[in-house]
Design a protein that fits this description.
heterotrimer; A mainly alpha (472); B mainly alpha (459); C alpha+beta (246); A: mainly alpha; 18 helices; B: 459 residues; mainly alpha; two-stranded antiparallel sheet; globular
């Protein structure tokens, strides 16, 4: 029995490649709507307030604990914007076609990562040196860190550098992935955009050799980005959180942090798609399929969040050594217990409850709800972790013999400038991304076109199915 | 790359039921040979019951040794089945199809083997009922729910039950085929076993739904089993090398690493022993090797973090432990072998497409991985206990006794023998999956190239 | 059934060890061996690294050559209030009783050895073999103490048989227990009184007084085990206390 006899052509209601080109590269998308303009102005105002907040923090020149919210905000930006480009990479590696239209939104987040890297530099002046306790304990005694015998300002030097490298790799990837679209704008667009695109497309004409070149570079930058993301999360989370707290020894934490990055990146992409559909008029190109698949991933990462959290929690809780108990108290049951409850509710319980329903995952409104919950929960999570870590100041420590946080620091409440920082800095990142979408199509044109080539709705006996080619 | 051959259903039935409807020449001698080893192993257990655990090499600080290592190892292998069947089923990976049955089988049999070890390693194994059964036996007390050793039997018991069901549900259509092709007592046996399978649409729907439901239900169990096994170690604050928060996911991903490798080993054996070249093709090895690269890299990341955080605390006992684990003879040799076999040799090799498509090489690299993964568990358990706390006076080590090695050998012979016995009565490659795969794949022509394509259901 | 009222005990048994007084003579080890029917640690057993000593003297060297000195620390079960060995036992063979003691119930034990792995002080001993005594020693076995068969864990019981007898005798004579009336085998045997046994709930007992000494420390504080055995640090001849172990 031959297979192909069972398969007959199905009805194809997807917009054609020519339509897509006209929509994303042609006349149709030159002017920003007034609503978008207004929104961008609001973001700019918030960003300005955020900058004011940073300046006030500096003039204030308070103790380390006052910088907790700033550190938490940066950690959140790294979490969200750093994780989003993974949506552009992981499905490519797994040859999943559904993700193609979402790739652009994910990859553009690197612009915000670059801003995060810049914003990290001021914080480094507040990070204690590795020899923080040498006054008390003697010159050759260092605080716990992953830098062991490196120069005493190694974390201060490397963290912004690594984050900047991540941003550069991410931007390179975003650029490489946009080249065919620039070529399309060059050929079909008008005005300033066409001039920009002509330069940026770098003579891309879609020759087989050029495509090969392009794919290779996407592969290389993608793999590099993934490795860098792990590395950034590893150093960032240990240097700016774990190693500031005596007795906190938590090998899963960097991975918990990275997982949060995936979770937030997914949420960001989901919200991006939703916004593009809602206001960008691209509902024919992205929708159910992406939401359904991203929603599944969001559900999986949400469950993993609980798993990673619980893995460390049970070990501390059951172990109940002094270090274990103080770590749990600082991060969970102590000064930030309500914050922790909020994290648990918003990063796990609520999105889980929303996303377990097939109907919800299969809608265009369901995943964005979960995404908002997750982003809020993860922001609170970063606040919980970083504010607590930065408030464990040296005065509270009896590090000499035990490496245990002896005196629990009090709850550190945000002041108005902390609120400015928390609202303004992510707004600045978002503004950068929105500005970029003025030039680059928000949905990856060539990916849509390519996926149209290798997929085809057909009928299998009486059922409508999708035939998906699997090229090597 | 056009490897796929269009096979008609008659051929599929004939070739895949080769081992069931006839007996290959090598089958009986191999099973008998394995049986000798198995009987030898049971004799060793008898000796141990009779004379006490003194016949092992265990010592005072090192109360857990090879038996627990082997227990963790086999529980690890058991993660193959659900990884391949459930996860790949839910993600609709087409290449899983010929491998599912063997992987599930490996799960069931390796769990059966794993269960032996904590039981025979108990001091008074004839009393384990107090331990593993939730019943108070007129003693006035139930088992201690706080003990991770209570969580273990529950987790593994659930996993074993679930996997067996999973295996059985996937076996039903094939049992129907066998029923129709046998006579005599075999016919009666398959008639009962196939539960009246006729292959009507309703039964297929039920079977598919059951498969998907079981997949989804098994996933949390899959994660929990090895996490709980890891918590046997991780919740103990006294042992520096064990008390690590990373253990649960670290053990799970390590288990997937060794389990998927074991599936590769099995696939190569199946291809060679039964000559199923049309079903287990290089492309399957290729796909598994790609999966293994991802898993191995992730696992290495966890290993790295575990080691970094080991020395991170700058505590003396922890340093002594790491020094023993990595730099003291003979542990340093074991550590090097572990690192080379579990990661440094196989993973770079898998990056080459030629290696991934070479079945002999895949066979040997997958065996290497499992040598390394066994050593990994050994290197976690024994040095941890040897260098527990700063009381250097009681630091001591452990020499594995020949009897323990004998039981390790037994475990392999036992699993292989069960597999071969199973293969006599049930098809090792699912017939219906193979046939379904034949209809679900086709070729499409785009421009001048022809590429393989699969059918995806639209919701 | 034990009622709630009966659970509350007036005693909290414990021990104080003055490390400064310990000469490392091992009399306590011998006394414990005899009192508690501990299997013999023969040369064979020693080679198998399975020696039994419910109390042992750990010897550490300190100082630089030529002024090297030995420090002896008697280590027995610390009867932790927060014992790592207790929650991990699947069959409740070890648990904390109401008198501050960590108790091992031989009959329940199935021999998973998890408690032994979990004990940071390494004071739990597993019977790898059926214990045997030469015929000459048969008659000296203490009839008050169970002989442990192979396959189970055992450890220091604070000579619970002596505690029970002391409490019973006091009750029969209708009087309160006197501090020092109940002695464990090791405290009985200690020639320098380095080991002191008593009731922490009695504020005037010697252990209570010693536990308020400036030199007091407990082992492995960082594990939060809250031992009922307290140690008094050694005083160096050159003055000043030598810090606690590690």
């Amino acid at each position: 029995m031959s297979t192909s006899s069972l398969i007959t052509d199905g009805h194809d209601d997807r917009p054609s490649n020519i339509d897509a080109t006209a929509k994303f590269a042609g006349e149709g998308r030159t002017v920003a709507s007034s609503g978008l303009k207004l929104f961008m102005w609001i973001l700019a105002a918030a960003a300005a307030l955020g900058i004011v907040g940073i300046i006030v923090r500096f003039i204030d020149d308070g103790g380390r604990e006052e910088w907790g919210y700033y550190a938490a905000t940066l950690a959140f930006m790294l979490t969200m914007f750093g994780g989003a480009p993974m949506i552009a990479i992981a499905p490519t590696i797994a040859k999943a076609n559904w993700a193609r239209p979402a790739a652009r939104i994910g990859s553009l987040a690197s612009i915000a990562t670059a801003i995060t890297a810049l914003l990290l530099i001021p914080l480094m002046f507040k990070l204690p040196a590795l020899t923080e306790f040498s006054d008390v304990l003697g010159d050759d005694v260092r605080r716990r860190s992953i830098w062991f015998d490196s120069p005493i300002y190694a974390p201060h030097f490397w963290n912004p550098l690594i984050l900047a490298t991540l941003a550069v790799v991410g931007l390179a990837m975003a650029y490489v992935m946009a080249i065919p679209d620039f070529a399309a704008i060059r050929d079909h667009g008008t005005g300033w955009k066409q001039r920009w695109a002509r330069n940026l497309a770098r003579g891309f004409h879609g020759r087989p050799q050029q495509w090969e070149w392009l794919m290779m570079r996407i592969g290389i930058t993608g793999a590099l980005y993934f490795a860098m993301l792990l590395y950034v999360n590893f150093t960032f989370s240990i240097d700016l959180a774990v190693s500031l707290v005596p007795g906190w020894k938590d090998a899963i934490f960097p991975f918990y942090h990275t997982l949060g990055s995936f979770q937030a990146g997914l949420s960001f992409t989901i919200l991006g798609i939703w916004a593009a559909r809602r206001w960008g008029g691209v509902s024919k190109y992205v929708g159910h399929e992406q939401m359904w698949s991203l929603g599944k991933l969001l559900l999986a990462t949400t469950l993993l969040w609980f798993y990673f959290f619980y893995s460390s929690f049970i070990v501390f809780w059951y172990g109940r050594s002094q270090a274990d108990s103080s770590t749990i108290e600082l991060l969970v049951s102590g000064p930030y217990v309500y914050l922790f409850a909020a994290v648990f509710l918003f990063a796990f319980i609520a999105p889980w409850w929303v996303m377990i329903w097939n109907k919800v995952r299969d809608s265009v409104w369901g995943p964005p709800i979960a995404a908002v919950l997750v982003l809020f929960g993860l922001f609170m999570d970063r606040v919980r972790i970083y504010v607590a870590s930065w408030s464990a100041t040296p005065d509270d420590l009896e590090l000499a013999t035990t490496g245990i946080l002896e005196k629990m620091p009090p709850t550190q409440w945000p002041d108005v400038f902390d609120v400015f920082i928390m609202a303004g800095l992510p707004a600045l990142g978002l503004l950068g991304i929105l500005l970029a979408t003025r030039l680059v199509p928000v949905i990856s044109l060539w990916e849509i076109q390519q996926s149209r080539l290798i997929t085809k709705p057909v009928r299998y006996l009486r059922t409508r199915v999708l035939l998906v080619g699997k090229p090597d | 790359m056009q490897q796929r051959r269009i096979l008609d259903e008659v051929t599929i039935n004939r070739e895949l039921l080769r081992g069931n409807l006839a007996t290959p020449k090598w089958w009986l001698p191999t099973v008998l040979g394995l049986l000798v080893v198995v009987i030898f192993g049971f004799t060793l257990m008898g000796i141990m019951f009779n004379r006490g655990l003194g016949v092992t090499g265990l010592s005072r600080p090192v109360y857990w040794g090879l038996f627990i290592t082997t227990f963790v190892f086999w529980v690890g292998i058991s993660h193959a089945g659900i990884m391949i069947s459930a996860i790949l089923r839910l993600t609709q990976a087409e290449w899983r199809r010929p491998v599912t049955r063997a992987a599930e089988l490996l799960t069931v049999f390796s769990l059966l083997t794993a269960l032996f070890f904590p039981l025979i390693h108990a001091g008074r194994p004839w009393r384990i009922f107090y331990w593993i059964t939730p019943f108070d036996f007129a003693r006035g007390i139930f088992p201690n729910a706080r003990s991770p050793l209570i969580w273990d039997p529950f987790a593994i018991g659930t996993y074993l039950t679930g996997s067996t069901l999973f295996l059985y549900v996937a076996l039903l259509p094939d049992l129907g085929v066998l029923r129709d092709r046998t006579t005599g007592w075999k016919h009666s046996f398959y008639t009962v076993a196939s539960l009246g399978w006729r292959g009507n649409p309703r039964q297929w729907r039920l079977q598919t739904v059951a498969g998907i439901l079981l997949s989804a239900l098994m996933l949390p169990i899959f994660v929990s089993v090895h996490s709980i096994v890891s918590w046997d170690f991780a919740v103990t604050p006294s042992v520096e090398g064990w008390h690590s928060t990373i253990f649960a996911p670290y053990f799970v991903i390590g288990a997937v690493h060794s389990g998927v490798s074991a599936v590769v080993t099995m696939m190569a054996l199946m291809r060679w022993l039964w000559g199923w070249d049309n079903y287990i093709r290089p492309e399957h090895f290729d796909a598994l090797a790609r999966l293994l690269i991802v898993v191995a890299l992730g696992w290495m990341g966890f290993t790295f973090a575990e080691l970094i955080f080991g020395v991170y605390s700058l505590e003396a006992p922890e340093r002594a432990l790491r020094e023993m684990q990595m730099f003291t003879w003979p542990w340093n040799l074991l550590f090097i072998i572990f690192f080379l076999t579990a990661f440094a040799i196989p993973v770079p090799l898998w990056f080459f497409k030629r290696v991934r498509n070479n079945i002999a090489l895949m066979f040997w690299t997958s065996i290497l991985v499992n040598i390394g993964m066994w050593l990994e568990r050994f290197l976690i358990i024994v040095p941890g206990l040897s260098r527990k706390q700063p009381f250097v006076f009681t630091w001591d080590t452990y020499q594995v006794s020949p009897l323990e090695w004998g039981l390790l050998l037994w475990s392999f012979a036992w699993v292989l023998m069960l597999m071969l016995l199973f293969s006599k009565f049930f098809p090792l490659i699912p017939l219906f999956e193979t046939k379904e795969s034949q209809v679900f794949t086709t070729d499409v022509t785009i421009g001048r190239v022809t590429i393989p394509a699969v059918v995806r259901e639209l919701d | 059934m034990v009622t709630a009222a009966e659970r509350v005990s007036s005693h909290k048994w414990g021990m104080a060890v003055d490390v400064d007084r310990c000469t490392g003579c091992q009399a306590c080890v011998m006394a414990c061996q005899t009192e508690n029917n501990i299997p013999l640690s023969t040369e064979d057993i020693y080679r198998q690294k399975r020696t039994f000593a419910w109390i042992r003297i750990e010897r550490y060297w300190y100082g630089d050559f030529p002024n090297v000195k030995a420090r002896f620390i008697p280590i027995m079960c610390q009867h932790c209030e927060n014992a790592p060995c207790e929650p991990v036992c699947p069959v409740f063979a070890t648990y904390h009783n109401t008198e501050g003691m960590n108790v091992q119930i031989y009959n329940r034990c199935v021999g998973t050895r998890y408690c032994g792995a979990g004990c940071p002080y390494n004071v739990r001993f597993f019977n790898y073999w059926e214990p045997v005594w030469p015929s000459t020693l048969r008659n000296q076995l203490n009839p008050d103490v169970t002989i442990r068969s192979r396959g189970i864990m055992e450890k220091c019981s604070f000579c619970v048989q002596r505690i029970r007898r002391g409490v019973r005798e006091a009750a029969q004579e209708d009087r309160d227990l006197v501090d020092g009336e109940i002695q464990t085998a090791c405290t009985d045997a200690c020639p320098t009184n380095a080991l002191v046994f008593g009731d922490f709930n009695d504020d005037n007992s010697r252990v209570s007084i010693m536990s308020h000494d400036d030199r007091k420390y407990t082992h492995l504080d960082s594990l939060n085990t809250e031992p009922n055995v307290v140690y008094l640090a050694q005083i160096d001849a050159t003055g000043g206390a030598i810090g606690e172990h590690e």
